[in-house]
Amino acid sequence: MSDILAVSHLGVHLDGPDGRRLVDDVSFDLADGQRLGVIGESGSGKSLTALAILGLLGHPLRATGSIRLAVGDDTVDTVSARQRRLDAVRGSVVGAVFQEPLASLDPLMRIGAQLAWPLRHHRGLRGDTLRAAVLDALAEVQLAEPERIARSLIHEVSGGQRQRVAIALALAARPRLLIADEPTTALDVTVQAGVLELLQSAVRERGMSLVFISHDLPVVAGIADRVLVMRNGRVVEVGETRQILGAPREDYTRTLVGASRALDDLLPSDPLEGDRA
Ligand SMILES: Nc1ncnc2c1ncn2[C@@H]1O[C@H](COP(=O)(O)OP(=O)(O)OP(=O)(O)O)[C@@H](O)[C@H]1O
């Protein structure tokens, strides 16, 4: 299996006299079709690592090291690549879904027009074929009434629908790698499971690779085949999901896993149990 992503000695620091290192010497690989969960306390550098992979760090943040993304038989280093190369790679090779769907959606553009852009730009679709592909992309993320959604502005649809649109947008140009940074955290709990299920099935059906950032360890256990643990901008450990979450080697990971189990223990397994007692 070849690698879709190779992160090598990634550093992210603040430019200027302070020069603080926010991500420090992070290295990991991701094979084609593999799903990597990234966990760690708040502020541990998970999102900055994701943004660096996407080549989206801007001033005052600066990346060092290398992040090689496979593009056909070639690779692109998103740490050093020029803007034009990054624009060509984003969407078509690597897609992203963020915690807040509005981060990737334009509030002033109709949803159909937003989806048409990657389909036209990366897949070369035009006219009726393009129109049909926009509706298909909305139907694929299980949005009922795709015609109405396509005509809507983003504030005219619900939070769960917005995240489905953001997922459709991330998948539109058929990237081989998806970066999902806490994709359901901002959603109402009643729609979280549905959006997660959608993400999971889209990744599986397309055989995509996935970097999945989350605080929800049971969800990570269900979606990832490998897990990377971060703390203070550094990698604590990385390995197979079963080993990392089932038999962690590092104290820090044990604490994270323990905290998650402690929460499980507080909850009755049957939500109606308490009422009946
Ligand atoms: N634009 C920025 N300028 C200065 N510091 C930043 C910037 N972005 C992030 N940081 C700092 O870098 C560190 C890592 O942030 P990051 O967002 O990657 O953490 P995280 O692990 O994703 O946290 P969370 O789980 O809360 O999303 C934090 O200390 C954060 O305050």
From TrEMBL:
Protein name: ABC transporter ATP-binding protein
SUPFAM superfamilies, sorted: P-loop containing nucleoside triphosphate hydrolases
Keyword Transport: yes
Alphabetical list of PANTHER family matching this protein: DIPEPTIDE TRANSPORT ATP-BINDING PROTEIN DPPD (PTHR43297:SF2), OLIGOPEPTIDE TRANSPORT ATP-BINDING PROTEIN APPD (PTHR43297)
InterPro entries: AAA+_ATPase, ABC_Ni/Peptide_Import, ABC_transporter-like_ATP-bd, ABC_transporter-like_CS, P-loop_NTPase
Keyword Cell membrane set for record: yes
Annotated ranges, domain ABC transporter: 5-257
Example of a GO cellular component annotation carried by this entry: plasma membrane
Gene3D superfamilies named in the record: P-loop containing nucleotide triphosphate hydrolases
Gene Ontology MF annotations: ATP binding; ATP hydrolysis activity
